[in-house]
Protein: NAD kinase
Organism: Chloropicon roscoffensis
Amino acid sequence: MARSVVRGINAMAGSESGVAGHAMATLRGAAPAMTQQALAASTSSCPPGSKIRNAHLMWMDEVKMKLRRRARFRWEKSPKTVLFVKKVGDREVSARSREMAEWLLRRGLQVYVEPEAKATGDFPGDCEPWNPQDDMVDIDFGVVAGGDGTLLHFANLLGENEYYRSGRNDVRPLPPCVSFGMGSLGFMTSFQSEHFERVLDQVVGAREEGREIYTTLRTRLSCMKKTKDGRLRPAFSCLNECVIDKGLHPGLGKIELAVDGQAVTTVQGDGLIISTPSGSTGYNLAVGGAMVAPSVPCMLLTPIAPSTLSFRPVIIPESSKIEVSVPASARTEGRVIFDGHRMELLGHGESVVVETSKFPLPMINSNPRDQDWFNSITEKLQWNARVQQKPLTRD
C-alpha cells in the first residue's frame, strides 16, 4: 500500500522536466528585457521542457529521484493499517491518543502501536504491537501525537524496519504521516489534536469521496560509516540532521569535507552539521544556519563554532554525496550523531558518507505549498516579530 501511495504522489507531481520551469539566459551583449509578445513568439518554436534555446541539454547529475517536494496524492485503495506513535509520559497525550485509536478502530482500520505503549494500557486492547526489528507489515499511513521529537522517533522506527530497509539501502517508499502537535514546540506537526476527527476523516475517507491530500515529501538522509579499510557499515536514516563533532575532547576538532568525491575544505572547530530542510530550524538554526522550506531539494552544511571568521554556512544540491572524515593529523577523534537519536564514534582514518535517501517521508499538510511552514516559523519561532512602525502623522 505504501508503494501505491508514492506512485500516486509521483503521478501527481509530474515529470522531471518541470522542476526548474522555462529558463531564459541573457548573454553579454544581448538585448534588454523582451515584451510579452516577443517572448511568446521566441519560445513558440522551442520543444516542451526546453531549458536552453536551440540546444540539446545533457545533465551532469545522474539524478533519478524527483526533485520536487510539494505534491498531492490520491489513495489507490482505501487505507487499512495505521502505525500510531505517541509521546511517552504525558497524560494528556495518552488520553487523546486513546480517543484517536478508538476512532480509527471504529472505522475498521487495524491500529499498530509500539510494544511499550501497548504494555502501558494507553491504547485500546484491539491495537496490535508493532516491533520495528521484526514485524514486516505494510503500513498505509502513520499517526503521530506529540512534538517534533515524537515525529523524529516515528521516522527512525521506519528507518530501522527491515520491511523498508535492506542492509545499506532503502528499498520501499515510506507511508505518509499525519501529525498532531501535542509537544513543547511541534514545529513539524501540522494539525491540532482537538480537530482529530475531522482531520482523520479527511485522510481515511479521501478515496471514497474523491479527495486529494496535500503532502510535502520531506528529504531524508542516508548515512553510512566507512571504516579505515573502506568497508561501509549499515546505514542510519535521518529526517533532521547528521552531526559530526569532536565529542567530549576539549581540544580543537579537525575533519575533512569532500563533496561528490572532491576535497572541499578542512573544518577546524567543534564540528559540522549536515542538515535537511526539515532540520534547518533545529540545531542548524541554533548555530547560525539558514531556515529552508521543506519543499526545497537541498542539504545544508553548517559549521559548529569554526575557528575562522570566513567559514559561512552553505546550501548544496540534495543530489550531492558528502563524505566527512577524521584525518590522521587530527588531534582528536570524532563522533557522528544521527537525529540526536544514535551515535557512532569516528576514529582516525574513518569517515561518514551522507547522501539523500531515495524515499522521502511524505508529511500530510493542512495547506498546499509551504503555508504550514510559514505559519510555524511565524507563530512558533516568532520570525520577524517586532512592534510595527507607526505611520507619519500629517497635519
Q: What stands out?
A: Helices lie at 2-13, 36-43, 91-106, 115-120, 148-160, 196-204, 283-286, 371-379.
